[in-house]
Amino acid sequence: MKKVIEADEGFTIFAPNEAAFDALGEKKRLQLGDIRNAEVSEKIASYDVVFEPVTADQLYNSSGIVTEGGVVLAERTVSGGFFGVGGKEDGGVTLNGAKVVKSLEFADATKTGIVHEVDGFISPSILWRYADQRE
């Protein structure tokens, strides 16, 4: 975390909210805390960090973002319609399916930090395959 805060140009953090952790289920929450999975947990968390400020508008107007973990797909959210047909963009954005719930921006004289609350984990779900199983 210190490395993120000390980034020269600022930073962006995608912070999974309580609903995101609830949706993981008990098994995956235990895997995150298991010392055997420290490397996997670190990789999952690396998708939540960008070493420059990325605003909600920038997310909305992009098709993806490059995080410390890798590329994350960004899509505009749509409301209404039937099976995705006839819906209207509602101004929201998802990252690998996790919706950005709200954003907080703060700045000092030298840099800007942005925290986006998300309702899911934005890392690829395949990373869980590498987590040791609890018995």
UniProtKB/TrEMBL annotation:
Coiled coil: none annotated. It comes from the Eukaryota. Pfam families: Fasciclin. Residues 1-122 form the FAS1 domain. InterPro entries: FAS1_dom_sf, FAS1_domain. This is FAS1 domain-containing protein.
